[in-house]
Design brief:
The chain has 379 residues and is α+β, with helices and mostly antiparallel strands. The chain folds into 2 domains: 6-142, Creatinase/prolidase N-terminal domain (Creatine Amidinohydrolase, Chain A, domain 1); 145-376, Creatinase/methionine aminopeptidase superfamily (Creatine Amidinohydrolase), CATH 3.90.230. The chain is built from 9 helices and 18 strands. The protein has helices spanning 6-27, 39-44, 95-103, 117-126, 136-144, 148-169, 180-193, 259-277, 285-298; strands at 31-34, 56-60, 65-70, 84-89, 108-111, 131-134, 198-206, 227-236, 244-245, 248-253, 310-312, 319-323, 336-339, 342-345, 349-352, 355-358, 365-366, 375-376. Helix 4 (117-126) links the parallel strand 5 and strand 6. Helix 3 packs across helix 4 (117-126) and helix 8 (259-277) packs antiparallel against helix 9. The longest helix is centred in the N-terminal third of the chain and has 22 residues, at 6-27. It is elongated. The chain starts with 5 loop residues before the first helix and ends with a strand. Bound molecules: zinc ion (ZN) (3 copies). The site of one zinc ion has 5 residues, from strand 8.
């Protein structure tokens, strides 16, 4: 299991700052303004509170960075002097003016993709001459490539989620006669017990609800011989301030499956396995999707696989790179992402199978090791 090492984390951040500035140079971005979202903790170790008072890390291309933070939140900041200084602001001060002042006469400004519109629009008014773009154009490709420490964190997160998935497949989590919401609650509880600091989601879709990929677990009581799709994940922190995500899906059946479900699941399992086998450094992201999709389409289920096959994962549960048609990005060593085909027969039933993998020079790293076979859970 990964353990947190403050000095290693600090030197990782230093190298991220260097790579970010290189990328700013390449794209002629004069200043990066990071607020809500994962870019800020990834770069500084500090996560902004999602409140109305602006928190912004101002990163000029050539000068040192400053974290502009509400005075009452300043005690939460651990200033890493080699990386940035801090400018706390009080409620009687003009935060926008302070941020704009630090941005100077920047011509091109990149702002966090998840910065609130109220702040982004205010900054546009304060920096009238500047052109605005998304920060992810700068940070996305860098964040997508995980370093050795991040790979360890993702593996630890995966191993923790595996404990819960194994309990599901082994029948330790009772399904029949309980509502989806109750089962979702137990999965969440087990995610925390397995070491996750935070539960991000615990989807439980039973019977006809298993055909709805992002089903909100509700009052439906799970019956016998039903498909149950469980997709869950949380954030693993190893005691650090920044965590990494797990994300796994297993489909089980509560009693003897129909022949139709058995056949559908065989196709799904083959699609997932072959798509993972297609993962290789240098291969295009869209190829992973194409390989899985082709198998599902050849079996006649093409119209029922209604989403991309995977998404990148790291500090955020969904981030670059996306395994989707049209993404010609080449896989690099350190790209971490899900491979999660699904087949959904509307109003009847569906199934999905998801693991996290990392493309790597030394061979694909699998963050999940729980069995792929369709398990019958008669509990
Ligand atoms: Zn999803
Ligand atoms: Zn998932
Ligand atoms: Zn996923």
């Amino acid at each position: 299991m990964a353990t947190f090492d403050e000095r290693a984390a600090s030197s990782a951040r230093l190298s991220r700052f260097a790579r970010v500035r290189e990328q700013m140079e390449r794209q002629s971005v004069d200043v990066l303004l990071l607020s809500l979202g994962a870019d800020l903790p990834w770069l500084s170790g500090y996560e902004a509170m999602p409140l109305e008072r602006p928190t912004v890390l101002v990163v000029p291309r050539h000068e040192s960075a400053t974290l502009v933070v509400p005075r009452l939140e300043a005690p939460r900041v651990r200033v890493d002097a080699g990386l940035f200084s801090m400018r706390p602001w009080s409620d009687d001060e003009d935060a926008l003016g302070i941020i704009a002042g630090l941005a100077g006469n920047a011509k091109t400004v990149a702002v966090s993709d998840r910065m609130w519109a109220s702040l982004a629009l205010g900054l546009q008014d304060a920096l009238v001459a500047a052109r605005f773009q998304r920060a992810s154009l700068v940070t996305g490709p860098i964040r997508a490539v995980k370093d050795a420490y991040e790979i360890e964190m993702l593996r630890s997160a995966g191993a923790a989620a595996d404990e819960v998935a194994a309990a599901l497949l082994g029948g330790e989590i009772r399904l029949i006669g309980r509502s989806e919401a109750e089962v979702s609650g137990e999965i969440s509880q087990r995610l925390r017990e397995s070491g996750h600091a935070r539960v991000n989601f615990a989807i439980v879709g039973s019977g006809p609800n298993s055909a709805s990929p992002h089903h909100e677990p509700g009052t439906r009581v799970i019956g016998r011989s039903e498909a149950v799709v469980c997709d869950f994940g949380g954030t693993w922190t190893a005691g650090s301030d920044v965590g990494y995500c797990s994300d796994i899906t297993r489909t089980v059946v509560t009693g003897a499956p129909t022949q139709e479900l058995v056949e559908l699941y065989e196709v799904l399992e083959a699609a997932q396995r072959r798509a993972v086998e297609a993962v290789a450094v240098g291969e295009a992201c869209e190829e992973v999707d194409r390989v899985g999709r082709e198998i599902i389409a050849a079996a006649g289920y093409g119209d029922y696989f209604i989403h991309r096959i995977g998404h990148g994962i790291g500090i955020e549960e969904h981030e670059d790179p996306y395994m989707v048609t049209g993404n010609r990005t080449r896989l690099e060593s350190g790209h971490a992402f899900s491979v999660e085909p699904g087949i959904y027969l509307p109003d009847r039933f569906g199934a999905r199978l998801e693991d996290i993998v990392i493309a790597h020079d030394g061979g694909t790293i699998r963050c999940n090791a729980v069995d792929h076979a369709l398990h019958v859970v008669e509990a």
